[in-house]
């Protein structure tokens, strides 16, 4: 784990022209492709820092950059601690699915070796490096022999008893390339689907753009992606009806908004949202599998069955459901204690994931004091193993499994109805990470404390490396 060395004093810094006429003036470069996100950030900045000067052009590098990763300049912040940026330069250990899997797996192995318990939980899985479908058989014999054994065992089972798996491209987002399978033939068919067209099939030589081939526009080209992660499909998801008190189970996942500051503190926003699948849950079966009951990604929930997004705290009184061969079975009712326990458990999982990146992310996660970043973290809720699935009154506290970290979470998918929740979230980011940096306040939150719509869930240190 390394962080960029910063100068011991400002005299060591090469003079950089700062767009400010006064030492106390804060000029902020704010620029996001989404006007929804842009408006939230600008409103939060001006509410907390009324004298801030906001510019949409980078120009002479301002002291604060809060912008899309590809629009920022990192040179000044890497060498001058007076500049604050809204993204770490290197954070692939968290946001790339295959690297997150490797990082978390290595961290959990270290915990077991040390005899330590960890709150971090992720699906059993494997990383696959492949460019063409004809490389799959060799991979199954070598690195994926455990997966191959599970798929072969499936051939002797009834469909309802099979173990299912999810394939995710390491570099894709918005649901691109996500597929489910339960046999070697199904996995091979997926990669054949992702093969580029041959010369005979594409006489004009025009290759379909990434993400526009295959059904529903979610296919990718294997040669463009190369790195994949395969994960077990968690078999006992906690289900809820989209109508409170209903009895039709829909799969959900939690979208957590996570703030990481400096090197490092971790905060979990109370703007923790529940994303519903638009189609009722059924056990996966068949080759022509509809992904919508199983994958709650907003980008997949389209057409006649759009997903629903609700704040976690609005789930009070809802009935949790389990899926059985006989249908949906009530498992208990959500109460205030369940909401708090689930929120706390989510915070513990996320804090451990960041710690895993700090300890095992190597070059792919470099935390720096003058940076902060907002991540969207996806978590799955499952019925605990000891649960009978039958209602005993209060819903059992779920198992919380980490699915993925997302950079620059697309908050516009949350909808206008949740704008007040998001505005409070961005207001808290300014108060926690920006105002104190420029001497306009103090972040003195204790671990576990709630303030400004956020809870501090993690704190750590990373060791600097010196050139």
UniProtKB/TrEMBL annotation:
InterPro entries: TTL, TTL/TTLL_fam. Pfam families: TTL. GO terms for cellular component: P-body. PROSITE patterns: TTL. This is Tubulin-tyrosine ligase.
